[in-house]
Amino acid sequence: MTPTFRDATEADLAAIVEIYNDEILPGTATFHTEPQTIADRAQWFKSIQTENYPCLVAEVEDPTTQAKRTVAWCNLWHYNMRPAYDGTAELSLYVHKDFRACGVGAKLLEQTLQETRKQGGRFHTIIAGVTTDNSRRTRFWAEHGFELRGTLTEVGRKFGMWLDVSYYQLML
Length: 172
Description:
Blueprint: E1 4-7, H1 13-24, H2 38-50, E2 55-61, E3 68-78, E4 88-95, H3 104-117, E5 125-131, H4 135-143, E6 147-158, E7 161-171
């Protein structure tokens, strides 16, 4: 399985919603607590496109049908809406549960960072906020050049427990 990468389109929204919702109810990678709809994600996607933030997907080819399937997505978005933060972006990366731990996320991250660097210095630094309850997730960011800059204790609540969030930073 060799993934290919491209800019996300509206045609990817159903797959993006499926991947994201699979993390919302059982997981802690996002602090959304209710499943998202395609309409919710369409509004999100339109904002990303309007402001020219990168949003890429990873596809793999189904060996039986030869159809392409979107299995991961990654995007940048405002770290903070105040203008002084315009050179800083927050990165989100989600991989379909059947394709985790096989390199798709790492390759998509690298492709997203390559596209980001092509924007001619628009971004100076990238931030990833990561819940600390999953050591595989926190190791991922460190293994890909992001440096731990700090942890906020008990800032999100899911499943009846308070969760810490660590912030990882990559200087471009």
